[in-house]
Amino acid sequence: MSVELKYSAREDEKADAQSATTSSSICFHCGTPAESSAVQFDGKIFCCAGCRSVYQILSDSQLCRYYDFDKSPGSSPTLRPAQRFEYLDDPLIAKQLIDYADGNVAVLTLHIPSIHCSSCIWLLENLHRLDKGIRFSRVDFLKKSLLVRFAQDKTSVRAIVSLLSSLGYEPELNLGSLNRPTPTDNRRSLYLKIGIAAFSFGNIMLFSLPEYFDASRQDLASRNLFGYVNLLLALPVAIYSSSLFYRSAYQGLRKRVINIDVPIALGIAVVFLRSAVDVILGIGPGYFDSMAGLVFLLLIGRLFQDKTYDALNFERKYQAYFPLAVAVRTGGRETSVPITALRPGDRIVIRNNEIIPADSVLMAGSARIDYSFVTGEAHLVPKDVGELIYAGGKQTGSSIELEAVKEVSESKFVQLWNDFGGPERTKTRLLTLSTTVGKYFTLGILAVAISTAAYWMLYQPSLILDAVTAVLIVACPCALALAAPFAFGTAMRLFGTQHFYLKNSGVVEALSRIDTIVFDKTGTLTETSTTSVHYAGADLTSIEQEAIASVAHGSTHPLSQAIVRHIGAQAIRPVTDFVEIEGEGIQGTVGSLHVRLGARPFACGNGPSTEEDTGRTNVYVALNGRCTGSFEFVNRYREGIREALDQLGRQHHLAVLSGDTTRESGRLNDLYPNFVEMKFEQKPADKLEYIKELQRQHKRVLMIGDGLNDSGALWQSDVAIAVTEQSNAFSPACDAILKGDSVKHLAQIMTFTSTTIWIVYWSFAISLIYNIVGLYFAVQGALSPLLAAILMPLSSITVVVFSTFTTRALARSRGIG
Q1: Is the domain defined by 9-178 classed in CATH 3.40.50.10090?
Q2: Which CATH topology does 532-634 take?
Q3: Mapped to the 3 state alphabet, what secondary structure does 390-442 carry?
Q4: 3-state secondary structure of 27
Q5: Which of the given ranges, 336-345, 413-422, 503-512, 546-555, has the highest pLDDT on average?
Q6: Interval 713-727: pLDDT, tens
Q7: d(Cα 508, Cα 494) in Å, to the nearest integer?
Q8: What is the pTM of this model?
């Protein structure tokens, strides 16, 4: 049941009776001066009944830890009747807001501008304690967005929006919020600001020519006239062209954050006000030319930075996440195409455990969709032919045929994968460090500016303005903040050329800290696409072969797909009662034949097999309960894997987990004799426990598997890489996807992650050296504000260019990119 603000006349009278009249009182909830309307409740003072009621809601729900994160963190709610959200009860309107719904669980994303601090995040991620229908909520602080997963039978979009509004976090729901300015609009506005600053700067310089050449010859009237003309020309520069810096500084201060634009805005305002006073009082011509030139150069620098970032931008389009293909059926034939080539109307084939890449309509087969990828809850949703299936659902059962109705770029697939799991999983210390250093650096700059003003006030007051303005402008913590994102981002893009796709930039740093690598054997060290397959046992009829191929076709396991290729059946027949048990095998019914494929205990029970042990990997076959034989696989290890293991073993401990018997140990020892451990006949639970044991020994573990039987171990490891062979069955528990034929490049990749960390440190050093040198001259008054305005953006550009091109150059020298 949702919580709404409700008031009675008696409560309001009681609140009024408790009102205080002190103007110095500060609202405990939102920090607003309470003045004469202060309301006392529970020993605390509030500016209005709304803030009092929000506090009471939080107190009754035992959520007052909200106030421990920050002082007066809340926003004062607008007391409007809840009926104003009645339109959200309209199913058509609610559907436009909902990202996903299956009749039981829905996912909703809302934009909330008032999110501003850690208290907001804590409260909004505890909404389930205020509304029992909300199962999960998560804040994206940078985007000011809130993702809510809720039970549709217990709450609604209207109830959630009403709750948020009652807490002072009203989401943007107006049509205008869906049409925010595009980058093109923002760039056009920047050009206009630059044009006005350039026009004013040029004309101010023109009217100041007499002052530059020989001010003593001017008559007083002309001097005053030119001064006022310059004042008028400087006004649009100080108000409009500089608004970008004022707005950014104001937004930061509102959130109790001092960003880089605070000293810049302060410097512009100081120069303009000082110059205006000089002209109005007739003291002198002021510094309007310096101010206009300063703003012009700062805006040019901002534009140059934007264009440089665009040119070096490492942000990836959705295509960069997936080197994967999807099976498309055309004219009765099944072919693999990149998911980037998937178009509406294409018929796609999805097997067991494969994730649906685009919103599609079910055309054939029995669909049982696992939406835990979307909802976080593992329950299967049955779908009938003709029903819509959202992207991100995972098929559980036999293969199905779908018709895509959207392109991958239009679905939530990429976002879902990127959002899976908590952000702490690959939290990066360097990105956090650069942000923290940038914040304190700005505070330090303000302290240096104040000290500089105090010094020159005592010794040479005429230099105060130039020195302080130069100090405020020349120092640039932006360069510190940009070093890590651009180095990591460039590395991510270069890794993509090796078919190694990372979920986020934090994975780069996490990989550099790894000391233990655990391999799953099948599909990781071995190459299943060229595995030699031989059937031994009773002769199979063509119908039996088609039945075996049809059941194997429903699985994404490399051995199952090898069986399909080996049989080469002309037709894949419908399969019912399909089941795949991790680490054991698969079964299903085709016509009158019940097929079981897998390990001998699963397929044939504990009785004797039809063949003696051959020292090879076997998949046993049972038809209608009768063990008929087995498919024997001769493992082929990947090309270049021996050299890759030798290089990796120099700096990491290597281990192997395998579901095979110990008969493979000899070949693995020949491949790499220094494995710290080789474990065989490992079930998924055994692999998970092994990762936990390593972590209890304080190891930083990288798990590399095919993502099928290894999801638990992948999720438990510090970093997880899923190796894929043209399949969209990767596990959302992974942090990266590596194409099978690129496993041989893993040693270079791991080495280069450490190199990237050093590039970030070098970038930090360059930025600090630049700022120290700039401040040294600025505090002495030897650096003009105009020169400081030129140097400030150059520092950011220098660090970005250095981190980007150094990363590229060193990557090429190591065979990456």
Answers
A1: no
A2: Calcium-transporting ATPase, cytoplasmic domain N (3.40.1110)
A3: CCCCEECCCCEEEEECCCHHHCCHHHHHHHCCCHHHHCCHHHHHHHHHHHHHH
A4: coil
A5: 546-555
A6: 888 888 888 887 655
A7: 12
A8: 0.59
